């Protein structure tokens, strides 16, 4: 585990690369990703992993996780796997239709975490390509539709906020507070910043009487997450570029660009 890894669970770093259809992120773990897609209909073809309850596909020589076992996978300590890479697929018949070139491309994806050609295959009908090292520390995820990305992020932000910012009851007992999902339109407004690379800092959120303010800093494009954390530590001393605000009275999220 990198020295910063435990800290970044309360940060969300996002760098959006629209032309190549991927998002570089830090701070979002597979368990959170999977929870955001509770209606996940596809199986997972495992390119790099240490999961010991997968099935074996003879044609590709890859193991895979049937959709009914994804919940079990999400409860694993995936961070400890090191490399964790997968592609989702609709039916096993599609795996058997992959040719040698396509299987080689999948091997390349898992090995170098980069695409040779577009990593979306008609035979698989895949929505994602998930390429992680120390899951939650370095994640590179390809999205067939960025609508899925904004839906996932809108789910994860309030999830993390509820886990971190516990509120005291009348008797001083801390309890987890639930927040509604952040709407996609609000997050889409941050796309110009996401293209540069942003840090959404749950750990620096301010709980006020009538609202919760989550600061957002533009910190740049990073593939090395140690460098990203260092850039965040410098940026946090300066005014933020935007705030994602939850209004407790209206129960709505708002965005303020500063």
UniProtKB/TrEMBL annotation:
Q: Which domain of life is it from?
A: Bacteria
Q: What is this protein called?
A: Oxalate:formate antiporter
